[in-house]
Amino acid sequence: MVNTSGQLYTMEGISAGVIMILTAYLVLGSTSVYTPGDTHITDMQLEQVGADILKIMDTPANLATTSELEQIVATCDNPPRFHQLFWETYLMSGEIAAQRTTRTGSSIITTAMVYYHYTDRTDPLNPKMVVKGFQLSGPIIPYSGSEPGVRVTRHVKVPGKDPCMPADVEPRQQVMLVEVFLWKA
Amino acid sequence: MEGLSERMKEEGQWIVLMGFLVSIGIFFLALILNQSTIVGQTTAEGVLEFPKNDLQDVRAQLLDLARDKSRGTLTSGEERRIGEDIENLTLHRKSAIVYYSIGEWAAENRLVEIHYNNGVFEYDETANIKY
């Protein structure tokens, strides 16, 4: 005759084994390691915020005026207000930015370039399309190259050439590309 | 034999059963928690890969350009130069090919054909604008 008196112990042992396996599975499965590759989650958010800010700056207040961004590019950011608008007014909340006495305490650094397109006719038989850029607003801290950064751009209408622009900008109505580089320092 | 069964009381079975239920509940919660990391990552990748902002920007500029040309604010030559600005800037700085053409469709209506390709994502549109 088979002795059946120990069955409860057997069942208890099996259930304990199942629970231990489940626990091990949970512990191993629910651990997430934040690898450098995952930083694009925050990159994506920063990029969207930057693109939205440029869109806001490029929206005129009414049909009769040009946008803030168009005015800034047309005058090469002189007097400087690109950084103040982009960083202080839109990226940081105005009140938080006002509490800071220096801008170096910022965790997000911005730098802006403007790219323009012209035709190089130094060789009249072989004109070349060239894209060049000039600095619109410089960074507070130079970019080291190791921080993750994102680039946001916006095409901006420029009514004509301003004396502040580089010599090879063509004197005509044109479209330039504002490129803002954002990174966390 | 009788003595062994005597020592194994069966009164605690409800406690054991509840313990099982709770552990299974925690198991499913942990499964969901485990998925959330992957969801965040794939969503971010998807968003970064899709050039939504670039596309909206280029599209708005080209439609604006077509409108200006149709209204006579810009001559054909001026329009072509600005079009070249957009095409070359997008090619050099955004690594995307942009092509457009403006065609007449009906009175005060124009068809604007827009092509965008950045190697990962391709977009074609024929927009009808009124001016």
Write up what this structure looks like.
- The complex is a heterodimer of chains A (185) and B (131).
- Chain A has 185 residues and is an alpha+beta fold.
- Chain A has one domain.
- Helix content of chain A is 35%, strand content 24%.
- In chain A, 24% of the residues are buried.
- Chain B has 131 residues and is an alpha+beta fold.
- Helix content of chain B is 63%, strand content 21%.
- A 3-stranded antiparallel sheet of chain B has the order 1-2-3, with helices on one face.
- In chain B, a hairpin with a 2-residue loop joins strand 1 (97-106) and strand 2 (109-117).
- The longest helix of chain B is centred in the N-terminal third of the chain and has 37 residues, at 13-49.
- The mean pLDDT of chain B is 86.
- Classes of the chains: A alpha+beta (185), B alpha+beta (131).
- At the A-B interface, helix 1, helix 2, strand 1, strand 3 and strand 4 of A face helix 2, helix 3 and helix 4 of B.
Detail the topology: elements first, then pairings.
The complex is a heterodimer of chains A (185) and B (131).
Chain A: H1 7-30, H2 40-57, H3 68-74, H4 82-91, H5 94-99, E1 108-120, E2 128-137, E3 149-158, E4 174-184
Antiparallel strand pairs in A: 1-2, 1-4, 3-4
Chain B: H1 2-7, H2 13-49, H3 52-71, H4 76-94, E1 97-106, E2 109-117, E3 122-130
Antiparallel strand pairs in B: 1-2, 2-3
